[in-house]
Specification:
The protein is an alpha+beta fold. It is built from 18 helices and eight strands. It folds into three domains: about 140 residues, no CATH class; about 110 residues, ARM repeat domains (Serine Threonine Protein Phosphatase 5, Tetratricopeptide repeat), CATH 1.25.40.290; about 110 residues, Immunoglobulins (Immunoglobulin-like). About 45% of the residues lie in helices and about 20% in strands. The strands form two sheets. A five-stranded mixed β-sheet has the order 2-8-7-4-5, with no helix packed on it. It has a three-stranded antiparallel β-sheet with strand order 1-3-6, with no helix packed on it. Helix 4 packs antiparallel against helix 5 and helix 7 runs antiparallel to helix 8. The longest helix is centred in the first third of the chain and has 15 residues.
Length: about 375
């Protein structure tokens, strides 16, 4: 069963986030994607692919201790179980694994199968890389490719560069996504950590790709680079053509971290000046006192002081209270739009104050800054009560 780009993007989220909203997800529900029904599906795929697949051995090994494992631990656990069920001769096993791909019904099932290739196929480099390019159509192989990048970075990148010419968007996307310097969930690749620009030729080739699925990956890859080599990124993107809407889309999304930081060169690359001719008529947070789980509303009214239409990037920065009186700032998107000469606009957004696996809240005062075109223009606050 071939997966669509949308199918994979719906599961390729950081732990603790849902696909559509970013709200906290139940770890039990997430890990149950690889529960007993998924094991049966994988076993069915193996059995259909070859009589040499030992279904009973797989089910015993895969079910043993499964309940206590997180979703990514289950991926690795199932890969080990596959090793017990497949022929010990790796090329023979790989032939079966590749035949299993079309019979899988969820991206995480295929991820477990690609993890088998990552664990047991490093000594058969080229054959394994070919298998990952094949299997990525059924569940992204972006994590499985990391050991190959770590083992021989130039060789892996050369193969991935060839993938940029594939007719299959999933394979082209793997060329970019698999080489991301800061790929979420994935093991770091020492060479990419030392030089996050090593895959630049891949990104150059894909900078006007016809597939939004691929362009999203290129933008995310470039945004990873922005966190370590912002000057390199700004210099590179300044040379990219501005007459292709596909490239323009990538540039805007690749610069999101730098735009949130108010970087003037990043703002200029998307046609926005640093600062804006606007007057903040009001900026308010309601309620001003909340408990964990409550929702706050943020409202702002802006009036143009310009005689010309001006593009605005409006964000807000929450300074989360931390122990010992410290704070931790995080910028959120509000709205990007054009404000006509003399126009007045009211904006509103709401946000639930809840814990995530990556962010725990502490009682105390939380300041919120309004940022317009990189400059702080107003401030308000709310208090989070204990308990």
């Amino acid at each position: 069963m071939s997966r669509s780009a949308a199918d994979w993007s719906s599961v390729a989220k950081a732990p603790g986030e849902t696909a559509m909203t970013g709200e906290a997800a139940s770890p039990a529900l997430l890990k149950d994607i690889l529960g007993p029904p998924a094991l049966e599906t994988i076993a069915d795929a193996g059995e259909a692919a070859s009589p040499r697949f030992d279904r009973a051995a797989f089910m015993r090994a895969a079910a043993d201790g499964l309940d206590a494992l997180s979703i990514m631990e289950r991926v690795r656990h199932i890969a080990s179980a596959l090793h017990t069920a497949l022929p010990q001769n790796y090329p023979d096993a790989l032939h079966i694994v590749r035949a299993m791909g079309p019979r899988l019904t969820h991206g995480f099932q295929a991820m477990a199968v690609t993890e088998y290739v990552a664990r047991y196929g490093l000594d058969d480099f080229d054959r394994s890389m070919d298998a990952l390019a094949d299997l990525t159509r059924f569940g992204s192989a972006e994590f499985a490719i990391r050991p190959f990048l770590a083992a021989d970075t130039p060789r892996a990148l050369a193969t991935m560069m060839r993938w940029t010419g594939s007719a299959d968007e999933h394979v082209r996307r793997l060329a970019s996504e698999g080489a991301r310097p800061r790929l979420p969930w994935a093991a770091r690749v020492p060479a990419l950590k030392a030089d996050p620009t090593l895959a630049a030729s891949i990104l150059e080739t894909l900078k006007a790709d016809s597939s939004l699925y691929v362009r999203k990956s290129v933008a995310n890859h470039l945004n990873d680079i922005a966190k370590d080599r912002p000057d390199w990124l700004l210099d590179r993107l300044a040379d990219w053509p501005q007459d292709d809407p596909r490239t323009i889309w990538i540039v805007r999304h690749a610069l999101r971290t730098l735009i949130k930081q108010g970087e003037p060169r990043a703002l200029a690359l998307i046609g926005v000046g640093h600062g804006a001719a606007v007057n903040v008529r009001s900026f308010a947070i309601a309620p001003e006192t909340v408990r964990l789980g409550d929702r706050i509303s943020i409202a702002v009214e802006l009036a143009s002081d310009s005689r010309e239409r001006q593009p605005l990037v409006v964000d807000y920065r929450i300074h989360y209270a931390r122990a010992g009186g410290k704070t931790a700032p995080k910028v959120f998107k509000f709205k990007t739009f054009d404000l006509a000469a003399g126009e007045v606009i009211a904006l509103a957004i709401s946000q639930t104050i809840r814990d995530f696996s990556t962010r725990r809240h502490h009682p105390g005062r939380h300041r919120i800054e309004l940022i317009v075109n990189g400059q702080t223009m107003a401030e308000a606050a709310f208090d989070l009560l204990p308990g």
